[in-house]
Amino acid sequence: MRGRKGRGEKDDAAAAALGRPRRRMGPGVRLLLAVAAGLVVAAAGLVALDVLLPGNGPADPSRIYDYVYADGKSENADFVLANMSDDSYLCLGSSEFYISKDKVSMCPQAVFGENVTGVDMTFVGQGYDQSLWQAIAAGAYGGRVRNKKVMIVVSPQWFFKGNGDQDKFESKFSYSLYRAFAQNPSISDETKAYVRRRCEELGVDTGQLAAAAQDTPLDAVNDWFLSLADGWRLRSEVPGIVAIAPSKSPARAAGEPTGEPDWDALLDAARAEGAASCTTNDYGVYDAYWEKNHTYMPELFENFHEADDEYADLACLLEVCREAGLEPLVCILPVHGAWYDLADVSAEERAAYYQRIRGICDEAGAAYADFSSCEYEKYFLCDTVHPGWVGWVRIERALYDFVNGRDDDFLGGADLGDAPGLAAEGGGS
Amino acid sequence: MPGRKDLAARARTWLEARPGLLAAGAFLAVVALVAVIAWFLVFSGLSGPVQFIYDSF
What we know:
The structure holds two protein chains of two kinds. By secondary structure, chain A is α/β, with parallel strands linked by helices. In chain A, 48% of the residues lie in helices and 7% in strands. Chain B has helices at 4-16, 19-43. Chain A binds chain B through residues 27, 30-31, 33-35, 37-39, 41-43, 45-46, 49, 71, 95, 98, 103, 126-128, 168, 170-173, 229, 232-233, 236, 289, 382-383, 385-386, and chain B through 16, 19-20, 22-24, 26-31, 34-35, 38, 41-43, 48-57.
């Protein structure tokens, strides 16, 4: 202390000898400089963070990423597109993509992902992602995806009264995806305005919507910050996605074409596996699910004619596909016929729902894979909601035939005519 | 026992006699606050809506 004071006095004396008054830095100026230095170091730290976070480019090539179902994957279009298999087709859907081999051994990951059939399915979407979310995703991915044929898996539960689970849309909203959609020049202003209005109606912050659209210069600044923050968040989740991605099978790693799957053999295996998995009930519901949920009936007294917003969102989704240059195949899943009979949802109500979906597809000129005739086909579903053993084989085959331009009993709409469905096999409703 | 006002006055005097320390403290506080804000907004998940997790059939 005495030394410092002494030094200060010597400096004053030296300055006085030179005829210059010595200015000491006041405490306020010192504090200001310290704060400024702190801000500079903090900014440098954020730049370092950006450098250190994993990138969204090609990941470990010994793994396959198309069939991963994980938080942060679907919203990260850069990562999904960089790691999409060459022959893969975008599949927009929801909770049905949670399926795994240990439950259904003929799921897409096994039938396509472990072979080289010329077709893969890149899952985009998770539980509670309905038509509006899919429309945003289609606009975000549409212009950049290599293969323009895309499958859209439409679940009947989206169209329950009150528009299904639309109230969860706000929690599923992705700024990064919406931004890519809003800034896609191929999407018309009219479509963008519709989607924006719907997002506002469902509770998304208007500031975020304005930022994504860069309405004003200040919104553009907000967009810069929001996209940076969301981008960092998504990049921080990449290691988790890579960790759960399955390793390529020997056939897949070898890369030699394995040919078209044997659909008849797969159907036989599906029925056998379904029977072995559903031993405690006659509904074709797998045992663990039946034990946990058979007294729970959310379908009770439901209907499909009080969901006009959801039907409009579906029409918008198809319009986004058209504007983005995508060729959609709408996969119309069936309800569980016997279960819905118990739930007092009449066959007429269900038939009207399927017809309305087909009508929306026809208006848009979109093809569909119509599985409505499979309502009573045992093991089509693995529970009361999701495709199972037989269902996945039929869906996989329909997609395979669609991308290869072949006839299929379940393909209809566009220029494909009517879909006879199970009737062509001599069964079904 | 010195009162609170007395303690506060002594602390202020002590700090004013050490302007370098005060500046260093301000510097560290700024860096820490920016780091906490960045963590909260980007990585914590606390700044967004509640997520509905679909983790099983």
